[in-house]
Amino acid sequence: MTHASAAVSLRPAPAASHPVIHPAGWPPVPAQATPSGRPASPSPAPTAPGLLPPADNVLAVITRPGQESADLGGVLYAFRRAGARLALLSVTRGEVSPLNSTCELLETLRPWELQVAAGLLGISSLTVADYPDGDLSRYPIAELTERVQREIRTHAPDLLLLVDPAAGGPDDAVLAEAACSAAAQAGIPAVARTAPSIRSGWLIDLGAEAAAARATQRSAATAHSSQSEALPELQHHLDLLGGTEQLRWLIPPDPTASGTTRSWHWRNR
Asked: Does residue 73 lie within any of the structural domains?
């Protein structure tokens, strides 16, 4: 059985009435680079700050459980509030985390923690593959690209959402290269949620519902009980972010394609 065929699909569970504690810690931010290691060129951005890319169906692709909350939670909340349908692919089970506040095996526990977190974030479809956490570079980019393409064929997204490889670790860079290849072949744009220290892209203002967005993000992170030791660090990081998120294009949209960028106005919703 190959890793590409051994994925486990999970339906998001209802929100737990008493969530435990969680998250994945925030990795150090290296110098900005493309997934291949070459210096990144300036990325095109919307014409004004505060604009959310247009999308009716968003496919988020992450390396391991926890990133959907700690890294992408605020942006996923924004897309859901804008009316987009959300799907999520995690290509590993997050089993190499140095943290484990439980007596359970991480490879068994973390996908179920992810299921609860996905439900809190409004994700309607969740797939967890079983590539080895921390070792994605062992696999051909073509194989990982095909794994992402399977999800694209299943969900027909009009946008891929990723963790910025310039703000993540080696596995994030490998996955971003594969996901961008899949997006380019499918003719859909790919956007990355990035760190404030990355000097490209544009800001999304969460506006009047910033507090609700961060509360949802914290609740989703708390669902990862095995990672509870990292929760204070994440809470501090979200406090520093306040009501903004930063995005940048990895695969920009085709300027000849139909559709316009959505303006992010909470008070109109």
From this structure: yes
CATH number for the domain spanning 123: value is: 3.40.50.10320
Torsion of CA 70, 73, 74, 80, to 10 degrees: 180
Mean pLDDT confidence for 93-115:
94
pLDDT tens for each residue of 211-220? 999 999 999 9
pTM value is 0.80
Size (the chain), residues: 269
Q: What is the DSSP letter of 59?
A: E
Report residue 7 as tokens.
């994925």
Q: How far apart are CA 234 and CA 157, in angstroms?
A: 29
Residue at 261 is within a domain? no
Domain residues for the domain of 227 are 3-14+49-254
Phi, psi angles (nearest 5°) of residue 104? -90, 160
The candidate with the shortest Cα–Cα distance to 249, out of 183, 151, 153, 152, is 183
Query: Which stretch of 28-37, 151-160, 216-225 has the lowest confidence by average pLDDT?
Result: 28-37
Domains in the chain: how many in total? 1
